[in-house]
Amino acid sequence: MPKDSSLRSVLIIGSGPIVIGQACEFDYSGSQAARSLREEGIEVSLINSNPATIMTDPINADHVYLKPLEKKSIVEILQKHQDMGRPIDAVLPTMGGQTALNLAIDCDKAGVWTKFGVRIIGVDIKAIETTEDREKFRLKMLELGVGVCKGRTARSFLEGKEIAQEIGFPLVIRPSFTLGGTGGGFVERPEDFDKALTNGLHASPVHEVLVEQSVMGWKEYELELLRDGAGNFIIICSIENFDPMGIHTGDSITVAPAMTLPDTLYQKMRDLAIMMMDGIGKFAGGCNVQFSVNPETDDIIAIEINPRVSRSSALASKATGYPIAKIAAKMAIGYNLDELINPITGSTSAFFEPAIDYVIVKVPRWNFDKFPGSDRSLGLQMKSVGEAMGIGRNFQEALQKACQSLEIRRNGLGADGKELTDQKALTESLGHPSWNRLFHIYDAFKAGMSFRTIQKLTKIDPWFLHQIEELVELEREIQKYDLDDLPPELLRTAKQKGYADRQLAHLLQVRESKVYDYRQKHNIRRVYKCVDTCAAEFEAKTPYYYSTFNNEVPIMTDRPEPVSDLPGNESVVSNRKKVVVLGSGPNRIGQGIEFDYSCVHGVLAAKECGYETIMINCNPETVSTDPDIADKLYFEPVFWEHVHAIIQHEKPEGVIVQLGGQTALKMAEKLTRYGIKIIGTSWEALDLAEDRGHFSSLLRDLDIPYPKFGTVRDSEAALDLSKDLGFPLLVRPSYVLGGQSMKIVINEQELEAHVMKILNDIPDNNILLDHFLENAIEAEADAICDGEDVHIIGIMEHIEPAGIHSGDSYALLPPFDLSENVIRQIEEYTKKIAVALKTVGLINIQFAIKDEKVYVIEANPRASRTVPFICKAYQEPYVNYATKVMLGAKKVKDFEFKPVKKGYAIKIPVFSFNKFPNVNKELGPEMKSTGEGIYFIDDLQDDFFQKVYSERNLYLSR
Q1: Whole-angstrom distance, CA of residue 683 vs CA of residue 62
Q2: Which member of 204, 255, 263, 787 has the lowest number of beta carbons within 10 Å of its beta carbon?
Q3: Is the pLDDT of residue 890 over 80?
Q4: Residue 6 DSSP code
Q5: CA neighbor of 537 nearest in space, from 392, 391, 397, 342
Q6: What pLDDT is attached to residue 742?
Q7: Which CA distances in Å does 163 have to 135, 215, 369, 383?
């Protein structure tokens, strides 16, 4: 069926601020859906309260509403469009996760859609109710003849106790209508049941829980499906969880395609998935189905079905190159699969199932260090804040690349001297999974623990364990040699299994550069393969690449051949002028989606300046890793070896590092050392801003006030310095983002303990001690500078007093009670510092104000967390302007700045403390928020502002 011509205007609902369990994968799917609908001439309106997203940018939709995701906002939007004479015809709620679906159901129950004549497309409300209500889901599966866990739904404490008696222990509790497994859990013993049942009933918005048999230790698989209005189905890909049942799939290491699934079982699972999707409703769209398989008997049971795009579908899109959200949006407006073209190949039908000739591994990224005292065990409630994906020709290569992408100071899986050797601790970790169990499996093999014991403790499929065991055996073989007598084939094998030069240098006890030189000499070099959705059966138009050493062996020559000439390489280098943009890696607290926003705008601006744009990033949830954004996407770790190889291959004019947060900035020194041009502010200026001693000398020369400070490298020096500075003191390491390891201390005992902790976590670090200005007001300014002229794009005042990290503070744009004298000082200091640092591009400066005197706390010559917020509030594309300044295409005075200033915009920090119920909700200099919202008010009499202002001291701690 062709497009439904009655649909002229569609509303997309976003997913709101980022929380644990719902991250930026919905920014990716929402952005893709919006672009897909606009291609069809449909007017797109979009509601979302998250200012850090690309989704809420004017480049994506005709009308963007930065409003709270609630019924009142939906009614306002529908009414406004009716009054404009351009009513909204349909709503697409499947691109915004659980938040969007729940809001669509609320509006449906209240008759909102019927009142305004709006159709729900892309899903069926009854299908949502069937899949979210655990009892309805269970009964529907039984009716279809699909196996499910034994169990029933309890609507009261008493009913729950009765069901538990029927089933027996161990069992599992799953609340209805919650996200990321909230409130769910395993109960091994009767004495733990009462508390778990009460938690589950309270966590469910409808106070219902499913009490069912435990299938802990079974294998877990997912299938991603698409179905059109004519009933055509395709399976996008199969995903296998490395971790067995018992760990939320968002916290599991996952692998695509499934590695240990026999074809007979896969075909059976495929038939069941199609039958399940058909059974819950006849809507056109995407669907994610989760199964569990008994490893002893191969019995299959259905765990759940999500009739919407999900975190897994973002992963499946990036894994296969098949743009699920784009195709799902087109099917929602009437197209059938056989009427659409696969945008990756540009020639094959979208009704062509992806085939992949490589392996992808996703490893989650956690932030337990931000929540001291938190329960670090993994279970049914999701706790990870982000994820990284590795692509390789085999499981080991992909796994190592994913580990290199995590930003946890590891160089891959092991081989870096950080092994755990304590037998008791290893046994405990393998049996009680936490974030580092993957590394501990490697450590256990290395320590000589038997295969049988490791398998018994972890219940991980033997195939995966053999893969890790093989790596340990290979390392033992390598360690028999020195680099000089190492057989080249052994090194090639190690590179084919994903080992970084740094890991091999550790094993061979040489410098990394020596391993690199040895590889060049023996022509052991990575080539680039295309992600093409069809295992190279058809030519792909999309330049989406990953690297591998699993290529045909090149003929040995006296000199290393260019990568372009190596057999098996598919990345052809053009002769256009190029620029590389470094991405920000996996989401974590302190570095989130706002840097992805900046990277995407940087890419688009460089394209406008005539550059071929090259994106390097490894986060499958983001818009920057959509193959549609840059001219070339390298889905690779933002890790020196990989970045360097791409730069050598592509030979760009330079690299933009100031848009990708600390991940990209950390590369600046090495790029400079290797003679690679940094576009925008130089590494020397970035380093000057980070080096507190040099930066304070600069402030002193500029006659700008700053808190008294000193730097130390041990606790003895810290105690001596504290006598001069006076308590309270702010203690922090150098070169960190998100206030990592920052703390306010009030006496010598606390000071010594915290300095020792920092040196233990980050050895050989310069530790900064600042006299802490109590009861000061904090503010920050963002600006664009071209080295001479400075334009301040916004000044924000924090509502909470100094001492709470800027990312965790409520903040108002523009300031709400700073005097003209203070604002004048802020403007003067911002301009002086930006010019003195020779800033080219963006800069963010943080201030503390006490007794009408402005002190500079720090300067960051890069994109900051607040830039997207200011862009949205003032409706101006500042990252676009800043990138053009970095590239030298424009000067600050070439832009006509016309910010839309009306009332105030409030930045609302959003936390995920509910995932860590035993952690105090206290805030200090270390950032803990996972996301943010934006809220507009006309004046300071607004009730919301008054409430926030009255609570400004509530959570302040040290």
Answers
A1: 39
A2: 263
A3: yes
A4: T
A5: 342
A6: 82
A7: 13, 17, 38, 28
Query: b/e for 384-401, b at 16 or more Cβ within 10 A?
Result: bbbbbbbbbbbbbbbbbb
What tens digit of pLDDT does each residue of 102-160 get? 999 999 999 999 999 999 999 888 888 898 887 899 899 999 999 998 888 898 988 99
Q: Does pLDDT of 538 surpass 60? A: no
Residue 381 neighbours by CB under 8 Å, 6+ apart: 180, 181, 182, 183, 184, 185, 248, 915
Angle of helix 692-701 versus helix 683-690 axis, rounded to 10: 90
Residue 920, pLDDT above cutoff 90? no
DSSP states along 931-952: EEEEEEESSTT-HHHHHHHHTT
Strand partners, 225: 235, 287
Token pair of 515 as six digits: 């391993």
Q: How far apart are CA 781 and CA 767, in angstroms?
A: 25
Closest CA to 733 of 688, 695, 691: 691
Q: Where are the beta strands (DSSP E) in 366-457?
A: 386-392
Going through 543-626 in order, the beta strands assigned E by DSSP cover 544-548, 578-582, 612-617
Give the end-to-end CA distance of the chain in Å, rounded to a whole number: 62
User: How far is Cα 672 from Cα 445, in angstroms, rounded to an integer?
Assistant: 40
DSSP H/E element including 73: helix 71-83
Alpha-helical segments (H) within 799-913? 820-836, 867-874, 878-886
Q: Is 723 exposed, middle or buried (0-12, 13-18, 19+ CB in 10 A)?
A: exposed
How do residues 58-116 score in pLDDT, each as one tens digit? Answer: 999 999 999 999 999 999 999 999 999 999 999 999 999 889 999 999 999 999 999 99
Phi, psi of 765 (to 5 degrees): -100, 145
- Report whether 242 contacts 252 (CB < 8 A): yes
- C-alpha distances (whole Å) from 604 to each of 599, 608, 613, 866 are 9, 6, 8, 20
Which tokens sit at 475?
């390392």
Q: pLDDT band for position 679 (50/70/90)?
A: very high
Residue at token pair 């989130």 = 592
Task: State the chain's maximal CA–CA distance in angstroms.
Answer: 80
Which of the two residues, 40 and 739, has the higher pLDDT score? 40
Q: Is the pLDDT of residue 539 over 70?
A: no
Please check whether residue 390 is in contact with residue 361, taking contact to mean a CB–CB distance below 8 angstroms: yes
Structure tokens at 375: 């329960």
Nearest to 28, CA basis, from 364, 389, 442, 318: 318
d(Cα 943, Cα 951) in Å, to the nearest integer? 13
Q: What is the mean pLDDT of residues 730-754?
A: 82
pLDDT of amino acid 364: 96
- In three-state secondary structure terms, 604 is helix
Given a contact cutoff of 8 angstroms between Cβ atoms, the answer to whether 823 and 795 are in contact is yes
**pLDDT score of 553 more than 70:** no
Strand order in the sheet with 90-92: 63-65, 43-47, 9-13, 90-92, 119-120
Residue 881 to residue 792: CA distance in whole angstroms = 13
Report CA Rg, the chain: 28
DSSP calls for 564-584: GGSTT---PPPSS-EEEEE--
CA distances from 470 to 88, 280, 560, 683 (A): 58, 44, 30, 41
